Amino acid sequence: MTSVSKNVRNYFKLDLLIDRSNLKLRQLFKNRYSLFNNGKVWDDSPTCGNNYLTNTIAHNKKKLNLTPVEKTSVASGDSNEWDLTTLSALLLNIDRPKTLNTAQIEQLDNEDRLLNQLREIRNKLAHHQKKSIDDVEFNQLWTELSTILVAFGYIDSELDKLKDDSVFEFSSQSINDENVKEAKKLNSLASQAHKNLNFSDAITLFTKAIVLAGVPDHDRAIFYSNMSSTRLALYEQESESSNNFEIEDSTDQRYRALCDAKKARALWPTWWKGHFRVGKVYTVLNEHEKAINSFERALTLDPINNEIRKALDESRQIYGRQIRQEHLDPRLKPTTMSEHLNEMQQKMGTNPAHVRAGHALIQEIDPAGADVVKGHKYEHGDIDVKQDYEQAAKYFAKAASQGNAEGMYNLARLTDRGLGVEKDHNFALKLLEEAAAQPPKHPIFNAFPNLGVAEAEHSLGLRYAEGVVVHKNLVAAAYWYERAVDHGSAQSANNLALMYLHGTGVDKDLDKAEQLLQLSARRGDPNAMLTLATLLCGKNDLKMAKNWYDRACESGNIIAEINRPMFEQALQVIQKLVDCCPPNLLQVINPIKNAFDSLQTGKTAYKRCDHPYIYDYNVLNGYANRGSITAKTLCDALEHFAQALNILTQSESITETQENIFVHELAECYRIEHIVAQIPGVKMYKKIVEIVDRVLHRCNVESTSVASQLNEDVLICYALLHIDSYELIIKFLGSCKQKYPKSIYFFRLSASVNGWLHRYEDTVFDANTGLEIDPNYYELLYSKAVALRLLDSDMNEAIEAYRAFLAVAPKDHRKVPESYYAMAACYFYIHKLDGLAGIVKKVYKQAEDAEKVQLLCFLPYESDNKTLLKSMFDAQSLPDAEIVAPRRDHKLRLTNPHRIEVIKQHREWEAKSSFVQNNATLDLISGSHQPRVRQQTAKSLIGLKAISLKEMDPTTDHVYDGYVLSVTIIEQTYTWTPSIHLVIEDENFDCERMFIYSFPDGQGKYLTNKVFTIGSKMNIINPYLRLGGTDMKSLVRIDDFSSIIMQSESEQVLNMCRCCGEPNALHVCSKCKQARYCTKECQTIDWQLYKHKFICQRQ
Ligand SMILES: [Zn+2]
Ligand SMILES: [Zn+2]
């Protein structure tokens, strides 16, 4: 005990105090259970637990996000096993019955408030970095905690006893020496059995040891800990063949291992191993966040324990990969050398044969580089090489030993994962640090980046962000990311952008975040492209938002691809708003934010009902008796559903006849109102699917083409049960409609599914065909109206359709208020802001009135259209002073990392180019690359459209035929071999490099000195955005000299400031007497950020 420092003991004392609260919370849960369930008693039985899970939790209005483990522990019913997370989830979220009186509600509210405070402190402790707390903080937290516990009914003086160090000592239990001896013997027998892989025997022996009375807690903690480890071993032995990741019930060995580990921890809270075991089980359950928390506690108690450190590093690394969704990143997909070369060919026009020839050549000049190539070939396989990690690691190591950064980085990567070499995070760290210390430019081919340096720096950033092997340190992470960004890393630019976006580790800076996202995206990072698209959406830059979204999809971003229909939907919503509002008002309207928040959650305007309601038959029946048609319908449907479920629950095996009746009842329920059919639990769902499959099969065998009631019923059931597979079901429904052209229900389903697929024209078609069967079928009238509104062609037509629905639907139908809200939105789009005062407000009011007659089960009423209109009203009522026009500061661009990079590179190149020109070998390799396609001037200028740099995709090599790009030259140029290098800026103040080839012979000097001077303006016809020049970065390439049309001299910017581009700059650099600046500030930026010194001395 003495080895644990005071501050660490403080931490664990608070932990114990929180644990102590569980006793009270369990009691609280039981009280509430009785209160909410007409006095029923919670008896800690599995029956009680299972019923609660399937009847109460599954139907709860508020969604309870219980993990599989938590669900299992609830299902077991034994509330003594529940931890604070589970208990507070249940206590805070379970719906309260409507029958409570004011005093009861007040008491519950009060308890909830305390519970929330308790949870807050618990979270604070759980995320406490060092797990050690000084006396000041300890006393403060202790007071806060004990105040809460006393309010829950604990006695102050009892709690104070826990403050004493003696809580960690042996409790004054009476010891039975005989039993202790016996228990220890059983434990060593069990351990032997474990060694012999007889895990079941070992568990039996441990169990015997645990139950013996009079054995010290610490000994029992050891037995429990051992047993937990044995259970995991047993699980692994048994599960080799199966792929069952999720825990299903409390017999699962992993669940029991967790319970045992927690018991060990409870019996001896300051023993590292208890925490370690808990962590180990969580890693097996793939819950790495929880594992990390447990390992951190263990490490606090035994700071030099390597076993814990290793497990912690491992979990942090896996958790990091999960958070980053690496499995979805197209760049991390393993590719063979051939695939890689083909991809390069597609993207940049490099000939694979030439690259392979180059590999052979490299052997002569750069043997270490050649080893890296071999390593890559072995890692993923190649035409003549079989995939082999050991060989790969060997070649990377060979390259690394010669000082090759790429070799070091790749060896680190393999070492981190234990591929071909032993897994060793520490050694990997050393390799990364060594790689990061190499020069950023390739030591032989100076124009190339030294591969491996930026990659290693990025990996170091990740390590510090996650705390793998090193101490977690966000400032250090930002430092390494920044270095990697400077050396060309796209991923680091993205990660650093996110830090600026959220203000983690650095001061929050949205402008900087956006610049970094731009940089990362133009370097090809698919995640940055998606984030940027969302960000631009929020700034109403819809055109660029769409551009970047498309680019994200093209670069293989799976999340972007999946959410594409929703993104387009959101864009439409925003576009409609942009069309309706003056720009200053747009800034304060929430719907824009909502519209792309919905992007992330996957909500759409035409969203599926996700069954958030509970349908209480008795309550509904009451309404029905008082004349509610909707309630009557729901009751009818519920009756059929109950009939169906009765058949299933009455006996284990049911006959074919019973199956047929079941299908009929279920289909009846679906026909009347499918939303009430809430199938309790996955197991029940599986059972129902099996029955439906069997009945369907029998129908098919008996009578392939004969239509029958049973056949129609089973088709309905099948469609509804698999409705989430839209594409499949829409085809299925197609054949149903053919077979049963008089069954309106298939048309209703088909109309809905087409709506979810955003195929609104098909929805309208389905609706119209169905309405021929029954023109007053209001479900179809409603689908038609929604589809017409989303089709966006004629708002008046949509309004008319809503009116048709409202004319026949019952007044308390759940879609009546939404119809009014949607109509109000339609009117808003027709009349724009003018409508807000009159017709929009009037219809909005009708919607509010309609809400008042809604059944309780559909309240609170949710409607996206309502949210949208509400915030329009709010924004309009704001005083003008609060509406600020967006800020536009062109000076911001001066610190744009892409601009800095472009200008720096240009100047560096100018400074070094004389050296390159005099070195023939280097010129051979670093010289010009053939273009993938050739840029040519258009035959005529007529019909050319303007294009800006940001509209040209920086990740794709492409000639923009039929476009013209207008730019200003912003840098001096001196050399013209092999091409003239310029830096240009367009009207949006975006800048880029431009390389001019095939200019007339002998005119280089004249062109650089007299024509392409700083401040000159030019138009480029059919501009070619070239990728994969020497440094694989984007640039504007001119192959056809006649595509350049210089503007007249009168357009030229005279005496342009080198830094900000303002005309008539008066200051002149005192050294070179050439560079002009408008202010001292501009000169400083030019010197510091853009490295003026590279060109200062040149004449
Ligand atoms: Zn200036
Ligand atoms: Zn100068």
Automatic annotation (TrEMBL):
InterPro entries: HEPN_DZIP3, Sel1-like, Sel1_AlgK, TPR-like_helical_dom_sf, TPR_rpt, Znf_MYND. One of its GO terms (molecular function) is zinc ion binding. TPR repeats lie at residues 272-305. Pfam families: HEPN_DZIP3, Sel1, TPR_8, zf-MYND. Residues 1057-1096 form the MYND-type domain. Keywords: Metal-binding, TPR repeat, Zinc, Zinc-finger. PANTHER family: ERAD-ASSOCIATED E3 UBIQUITIN-PROTEIN LIGASE COMPONENT HRD3 (PTHR11102:SF160), SEL-1-LIKE PROTEIN (PTHR11102). Belongs to the sel-1 family. This is MYND-type domain-containing protein. It comes from Rotaria magnacalcarata.
